[in-house]
Amino acid sequence: MKTEGTPEGIERFISPGKGRGLRALKQFKVGDLLFTCPAYTYVLTVNERGNHCEFCFARKEGLSKCGKCKQAFYCNVDCQKGDWPMHKLECSSMCTFGENWNPSETVRLTARIIAKQKIQTEKTTSEKLLSVKEFESHLDKLDNEKMEMIQTDIAALHHFYSKHLEYSDNASLMVLFAQVNCNGFTIEDEELSHLGSAVFPDVALMNHTCCPNVIVTYRGTVAEVRAVQEINPGDEVFTSYIDLLYPTEDRNDRLRDSYFFTCDCKECTTKSKDKAKMEIRKLSDPPKPETVRDMVKYARNVIEEFRRAKHYKTPPSELLEICELSLDKMGAVFEDTNVYMLHMMYQAMGVCLYMQDWDGALRYGEKIIKPYSLHYPAYSLNVASMWLKLGRLYIGLEKKSLGVKALKKAIAIMDVAHGKDHHYIAEIKKEIADQA
């Protein structure tokens, strides 16, 4: 289906067994840009206020703050004016509630969709292939817990936005929140730190596979879709909805929980990477199958325990202790290359970075990078961001040659994933030049 103004070289079509999808009309080589999609609407995460412009997401020092709420920051007057139609939903409310103003990002994003739909009746440049109103909600598949979470979000919407936003009945809001939960995106920086949440309708049209042929990256608030495999005319364009580190069972648990389907891609059918991802220690007396099963169960539980601990702002020293204790226990059965070990090492590295324990962060990063390169697909952002973190740690610890080598490995991936002209790459090249 081609309509006026749609991107060249791709089309919307009905994918057998998957519903709507995206198909290539011409050949794309690795690194080629298939299409771009500006955000329909978006919000900067609260933690990045003052570091990034609320409107264009530029990262710079000396941003100017909103004179009224003093909580939103902008590059200049043009960015402030550009953001006002959305920021005005929150500005007065922020002043009214003060420190008690705390709607979730999902609530903030949904409020902006409602406001946008009031003022924008025609399709936007973000909806050349799929409109927001066409989003799947899967409302009939939600369990009681998910329904209660949406009800909580609706209550927060009423609480924080009732004076500045007109919205429809609760039934319609239920559908909209369910649509956002299934179709929202998180915008991340070059180290995969969370910058905000957004809706990119045309990008949401792509179906999932665990062997994706495209990758989605961001230039400010614009999504860019690039080929990471060669794509031929007639091929479906596939992205990945989830982190691909984990074994098949875990990936499909996540897909069923969040997106209500089971993946039947080549990787899920053959499970060809699962043995390497679940590597068991080579001992003279190998662990029994039930011992391995029990340790997998423990690993999954500790991952959830750590997630909850972070959510409830557990002190960093206690978070690090959770990581170290779990690594000790799992290490009796799992090799360091096992993905559950890698998950907890990554969390430990993050805590060390937060605590400014650079040597500790480096120790974990050096253990992670080689198995990451094995387990993830080519041109993975997870691998690029790990090389980038390692490079910056090496340089900070006066290991310049190792730092430059790591940064160059990050650039080799990012040239394909982000495009050679991306400002992130220019910034990293400057970091390399500064070491000369």
UniProtKB/TrEMBL annotation:
One of its GO terms (molecular function) is zinc ion binding. Protein-lysine N-methyltransferase that methylates both histones and non-histone proteins, including p53/TP53 and RB1. Specifically trimethylates histone H3 'Lys-4' (H3K4me3) in vivo. The activity requires interaction with HSP90alpha. Shows even higher methyltransferase activity on p53/TP53. Monomethylates 'Lys-370' of p53/TP53, leading to decreased DNA-binding activity and subsequent transcriptional regulation activity of p53/TP53. Monomethylates RB1 at 'Lys-860'. InterPro entries: H3K4_H4K5_MeTrfase, SET_dom, SET_dom_sf, SMYD2_SET, TPR-like_helical_dom_sf, Znf_MYND. Its EC number is 2.1.1.354. SUPFAM superfamilies: SET domain. It catalyses: L-lysyl-[protein] + S-adenosyl-L-methionine = N(6)-methyl-L-lysyl-[protein] + S-adenosyl-L-homocysteine + H(+); L-lysyl(4)-[histone H3] + 3 S-adenosyl-L-methionine = N(6),N(6),N(6)-trimethyl-L-lysyl(4)-[histone H3] + 3 S-adenosyl-L-homocysteine + 3 H(+). Its main location: cytoplasm. GO terms for biological process: heart contraction; methylation. One of its GO terms (cellular component) is cytosol. Residues 8-242 form the SET domain. Keywords: Chromatin regulator, Cytoplasm, Metal-binding, Methyltransferase, Nucleus, S-adenosyl-L-methionine, Transcription, Transcription regulation, Transferase, Zinc, Zinc-finger. This is N-lysine methyltransferase SMYD2. Residues 53-91 form the MYND-type domain. It holds the Pfam family SET. Gene3D superfamilies: 1.10.220.160, 1.25.40.970, 6.10.140.2220, SET domain (2.170.270.10), Tetratricopeptide repeat domain (1.25.40.10). It is found in: Cytoplasm, Cytosol; Nucleus.
